[in-house]
Amino acid sequence: MEMDKNVNISLLVDFYGEMLSEKQKEAVDLYYNEDLSLSEIADITGLTRPGVRDRLVKSEAILKNLEEKLGLLRRFEEMKEEISSIAKQLEEGTANPEDIIERLKKLS
Prior knowledge:
Layout: H1 5-16, H2 22-33, H3 38-45, H4 49-70, H5 72-92, H6 97-107
């Protein structure tokens, strides 16, 4: 499932945000979470509009690079899908207890 870019970046910030500088985190938060324009962020931060854009591009690159190397978001999404599948089988009464146990072990 392809995720909306804004949602994807917000999730990457949740996982890797501490790896960004305070200024980078602020710009990313204002743009992706607060939905402010580049001009509005420029007014808040004292940067130029192109400066804000540059900071966002660099921050996004850092976040994507970390995900590429560490894969925490990908793993989280895989686990979420597996848990949903297990829950569905349990609700439907089609779950094999031994199978569920093995699947849960693989998640840890």
